[in-house]
Specification:
- The protein has about 325 residues and is of the alpha/beta class.
- It folds into three domains: about 5-70, Methane Monooxygenase Hydroxylase, Chain G, domain 1 (Up-down Bundle), CATH 1.20.58; about 80-250, Rossmann fold; about 255-325, Beta-grasp domain (Ubiquitin-like (UB roll), Roll), CATH 3.10.20.
- It contains ten helices and twelve strands.
- The strands form two sheets. Strands 1, 2, 3, 4, 5, 6 and 7 form a seven-stranded mixed sheet that branches. The chain has a five-stranded mixed sheet with strand order 9-8-12-10-11, with helices on both faces.
- A hairpin with a 7-residue loop joins strand 10 (about 300) and strand 11.
- The longest helix is centred in the first third of the chain and has 29 residues, at about 45-70.
- The radius of gyration is 29 Å and the shape is elongated.
- The structure holds guanosine-5'-diphosphate and magnesium ion.
- Guanosine-5'-diphosphate binds near residues 93, 114, 136 and 237.
Length: about 325
């Protein structure tokens, strides 16, 4: 141990020993370095302290990188589609998720209660659709990962509150999204893949339609925005129009359900295949089994638009809830 180490140095060294995080360790080492008597006898010790500072700095960098990764959320898609809830604080996003699913996100009278994305499954007839409750969109304190989650979703419910001015809320929300290069639209247009703007299919949900004058407020919103978006008034809290909303969310996804029926047996109606609208019998056969596309000769269909057991070919365009018996 080199001579002449000051009490300040020894105190800093003790803090270093007690330090738990790289940041605390670096701080203590810097104090040790500052208070060490600078002479030939302490040269080796000075070098050693510098080395330790460098080492803890590397640790600190790695910790920061990992922290950033952890704070960037990605919501794994589940079910027939993923729809996110976007809106200003307190419009009732969490209340709606809680009313439509079995999840219980925190609902509160104060803003910014929801800080992380909360996925939850909404049952709709014989399928499940994923809803993602998001922190509020806001000009000054929106979490940086919120636009990204919206960008990756299959659709957006833009929520506004009918007890406040819904025009300002809609305009503000659309403006903030635009700044994040997100264009909320009724129908997604064909865009070139290099476009920096992402178009997202959106529907406006006008919440808190349970007050006396909320009907008038709703009409003001409708007059202004019904040309641009589908709009549905609901009360998340009192369950008004929620069945209609579920159907609209399903329609928004542009999907359909098809049931496979083995010849001579009953179809299993609770496990439909999910395809995009416009898909054909051939698409369905390939989905059931990769060889079926080539082997398929025809199919028999049970569904709303056909008489039972009608024979159809590969180019038949599927309908929602068709029951299909493939013949090879
Ligand atoms: N009257 C009424 N209040 C609601 C409705 N939905 C939500 N709220 C209330 O609005 C406040 C904010 O709701 P919350 O779901 O936390 O909003 P979020 O910030 O958008 O997630 C809470 O006090 C809710 O009880 C509704 O349909 N009607
Ligand atoms: Mg919330």
């Amino acid at each position: 141990m080199p001579a002449n180490l000051t009490p300040d140095y020894l105190a800093a060294e003790e803090r270093y020993r007690q330090a738990k995080t790289p940041a605390e360790k670096i701080q203590a080492l810097k104090e040790m370095y500052a208070t060490i008597p600078k002479h030939k006898g302490t040269m080796k010790l000075q070098g050693d302290i510098r080395k330790r500072i460098a080492k803890h700095n590397t640790e600190l960098q790695q910790e920061r990188k990992a922290g950033k990764r952890a704070a960037t959320f990605h919501v794994e898609k589940e079910g027939a589609g993923q729809v996110v809830l976007a809106g200003l604080p307190n419009v009732g996003k969490s209340q709606l998720v809680s009313s439509l699913t079995h999840a219980s996100p925190e609902v509160a009278e104060y803003p910014f209660t929801t800080r992380m994305p909360h996925p939850a499954m909404m049952p709709f007839e014989n399928i499940q659709i994923q809803l993602v409750d998001l922190p509020p969109i806001s000009a000054d304190h929106m979490a940086f990962w919120v636009p990204n989650i919206i960008r990756n979703s299959d659709g957006v419910l833009l929520m506004v509150d009918l007890t406040a001015d819904p025009l300002i809320q809609t305009e503000t929300s659309l403006e903030i999204m635009k700044e994040s290069k997100l264009a909320l639209v009724r129908e997604e247009p064909e865009v070139d893949p290099w476009s920096s703007v992402a178009y997202k299919k959106t529907m406006i949900v006008a919440n808190k339609n349970d007050f006396d004058d909320s009907e008038d407020t709703f009409h003001i919103l409708k007059d202004q925005y019904s040309a641009s978006f589908p709009i549905l008034p609901v009360s998340a809290k009192h369950g008004k129009n929620l069945e209609k909303l579920k159907r609209s969310v399903y329609d928004m996804l542009g999907i359909l359900r098809v049931h496979s029926k083995p010849p001579g047996k009953e179809a299993e109606l609770d496990k439909p295949f999910i395809l995009k609208r416009g898909c054909t019998l051939l698409d369905f056969a390939q989905m059931v089994h990769k060889d079926f596309g080539e082997k398929l000769r025809f199919a028999r269909i049970w569904g709303s638009e056909k008489f039972d057991g009608q024979r159809v070919n590969k180019d038949y365009v599927l309908n929602d809830e068709d029951v299909i018996e493939l013949h090879m």
